[in-house]
Amino acid sequence: MFKNNSKRYTPKEPKIFDSARLYNYGIWLLSRRDYSKYELFTKMKKYQPEEKIIEEILTKLEKNSFLNDKRVINSVYQTYSKKESSSKIKNRLMLKGIDKEDISNFLSDNADPNKELESATDLLIKNLNLTIQSLRKNTTVCLPIKDLVGI
What we know:
Layout: H1 19-32, H2 37-45, H3 51-63, H4 69-80, H5 86-95, H6 100-110, H7 113-137, H8 143-149
Helix pairs in contact: 1-3, 2-3, 4-5, 5-6
């Protein structure tokens, strides 16, 4: 009645890249966005089990200025400096495997405490305004909260 067309699952052998293909893979990844050395290492580890070969490729990419952790730090800082505190940016960069000393040096040179305070104040005001607007729309809110906010 039923044909048994089921094929048995056979796991595929992992692809192993040679040095030239791994180098091209690294350039391709870096053409899409900036990666830290650690991030690129973990991506390449899927295709090359020998860490020595990966290290050679990463060194070659750094030598040719394709890979640069300082550029990653600057990029992440520019992206998140208006939304996040410097400590949160520092944590984000540490997750990318960037050296603490490089992060601290960059933040000490570029982070402005006044700008951070201003961003935090703007964010607080924005969130407070959203809360007040939602309280005004919501008629089921208890009266003491409405009195406290001044609605």
